[in-house]
Every structure is written in structure tokens, then in C-alpha cells.
Amino acid sequence: TTYWKVLATEDVDVKGLAKAGELLRQGGTVAFPTETVYGLGADARNTEAVQKIFKAKGRPSDNPLIVHISHRSQIEELAAAPNEAVSRLLDAFWPGPLTVVLPVKDGALSPLVTAGLDTVGLRMPDHPVALQLIEAAGCPVAAPSANRSGRPSPTRAEHVREDLAGRIDGIVDGGATGVGVESTVVEYTADGNGDGTGVLHVLRPGGVTAAQLRAVLPGVEVREASAHLSEPSAAPRAPGMKYTHYAPRGVMTLVQGEDPERVLARMQRELDEARARGERTGALTFREHADALCADHVVACGSLGDLETVAHGLYAALREFDEAGVTFIIGEACPESGIGAAIMNRLRKAAGDRVIEAD
Ligand code: TXA
Ligand code: MG
């Protein structure tokens, strides 16, 4: 695995990126930073190359990949033209953490990318290194998160190395990612209400919040993905949502409730009982509450007063528990407003839907 360090993102190592782009063009796999998480890229038109992504990640082949582009004009070669509503979203959020699902053009991409669906998820990342790499590759770049399947997504190049060194051809290190959770995946359907207006389905909550989507599309119903894994959702689903993703090695349970004191008390009780059983315990909480909990390993993940900081640190926090050899984790829930919806979606998955109500 070749490793390129691209230190300052304003002054990218153009030579390194040219080589990494060449590797992609020749059918290799290269991990690279985006504003959300690190992606593992390959030429989306080349089936042999795309196969390497699935193999390196251990990813189930029925889970389609997002295709990354660097210019809006590339949509034309790959998918049906966006309608007015989707165009407004692209105006507002591209480049950025929004993936739009569109009908795929016949023969434009390897069938492995779409996993047999007749649609493709497209995204233009808001990261200078990602954009210049796609540019250098000169092809649409299929890229899932650059983790082994079932591990937390990587937000630093070290995470990619932990999971994939020796299994992929290159890693472009651009430092820590910004947003920290993946892009929001949306699909617009015209036949939603029966009243002529369409529905925007949020297939996966992410870096763009439902409120931001509604602000751009005031006349359109924005239907959020069901928060609970077990609840059947009315929306067409992102196939990837059914897998237990982002799982730390320890068994994790979330505690939620209106009253923080009761939540913390319940968390501590669970931790004490687990410790008495001989578990190595971990607590996932926020800066405001870190001193209130006692466990073998306490991680303060950002601040409740600024949920963006929680999203930014979430996956690194989950990885910390693995490094500490923790076998039992109690996590504190956060409010589901704004980016909190994406955070809680990921936390619920990491916890395999184990959630305790404190009140
Ligand atoms: O932020 C991100 O989106 C990151 C970075 C690397 O860009 N990528 C990412 O990819 O998270 P991945 O493969 O880990 O997740 C892709 C999600 C999955 O839930 C998948 O099922 C869904 O997008 N998806 C992809 N193509 C789809 C399609 N045609 N229809 C419905 N869902 C789709
Ligand atoms: Mg992923």
C-alpha cells in the first residue's frame, strides 16, 4: 500500500495526487479524505477495480456504492438529468455531504457499483484533496467508506491503515475529516402524495440535516428515514441501512431520557453491574458529563452544546473502545435535532438497537 501525506489541504501535493489518480485510472484502489469520512476509491466503470473494493472491505455485494464526481457536468454521462427539485438541492449543497439517487444510464458504470439497482447515488465531495484526486483520475470514482465492513468509518488516515493496510493499493492522507459522519442520501419520487407534489426520501441521515433540506425545498415533503432499525419504513431504503454497521467490538447499549441526572445515574448503574460481572467497561458521553461517570474507559465525545463536535469525533471515539479492550459500553444518547439525527442513527446501529429509557 503506497502512502501519500498531503499536509496542507490548500497546497496539495500535486505530484502525489497525480500518481494516486494514475493508480485509480489503472484499476487500483486508493483511500482518500472527504469532508465526511475517508473513502476507498476505484474507477466506477471498471468492474475488476470495483471488485477490489468489495474484497478489501469484506462488503456484501448487494450493497451499492456511491459514485464521486468533481464536476456537475459529469452527471450527464452517468444518470438521468436531475429534475427541478433535485437541481435546487445540488445548487444548495454541492460540493458537500449530500448524495442524490438518480436513475442510472445504461452501461455507464460497472453493474457492481449499483448492486443490480437501476439507480446510482452521486456525490460531489467538498474537500480539495478529494476533488483534485477525482480530477487527476479522470473517471467517476466509486467510493464507500474506507473501513473493513462492520467497523466504524475512518475519519483519519490511521483508521484506514488499521483496517486496510496491505489490502489496498494506496492511501492519501489529508488529515482528519471535518463533518465526521457520512453524507445524507436522498431520493426524490414524484408519486408521493397523490396530489402532484413529490416526496424527498431521506434514505440515510447525514451531514446535511432535514431542516436544511426543507429550507431549500419548501413545497416538497421531506420524509425522514425511520429512526429505529426494527421499524419498517415507508421510504425506499438504502440497502446499506440493513447491515449492522459501525459496530465497536464491545457490546454497546444506549441510555436516553429527558432528565440528564437520571440518564447518568442509569448509565452508572449499568456500568457498576457490568464491572461486578467482570466486564471491562466503557462509557461514551459528552464533555459536560465526563466527570460524572466512572468506568474503565470514559470517552468524552464533543459537546452537547455543539453537536457538530460530537459528529466530528464519533467514529474515533468508537474505535478508542476497541483499542482499550472494552467489552461492555454504555453510551449516552443526544438530542435528535439537526446533525443529532445522523449521530443517533449511527449510535443506534453501533448499539444494535439496544436502547434503555432512563425515565
Ligand atoms: O459520506 C459518504 O457518503 C462516504 C464518503 C466516502 O463519500 N461514503 C459512504 O459510502 O458512506 P458507503 O458505501 O459506506 O455508504 C453508501 C450508502 C449505503 O447505505 C448504500 O446502501 C446507499 O448509500 N446507496 C448507494 N447507492 C444507492 C442507491 N442507488 N440507492 C439507494 N441507496 C444507495
Ligand atoms: Mg460505510
Automatic annotation (TrEMBL):
UniProt signal peptide: none
Principal location listed in the UniProt entry: cytoplasm
Binding-site residues for ATP, renumbered to this chain: 59, 63, 119, 145, 153, 204, 246
Keyword Transit peptide among record annotations: no
Annotated ranges, domain YrdC-like: 14-208
EC number: 2.7.7.87
NCBIfam families, per database record: L-threonylcarbamoyladenylate synthase
Protein name, entry field: Threonylcarbamoyl-AMP synthase
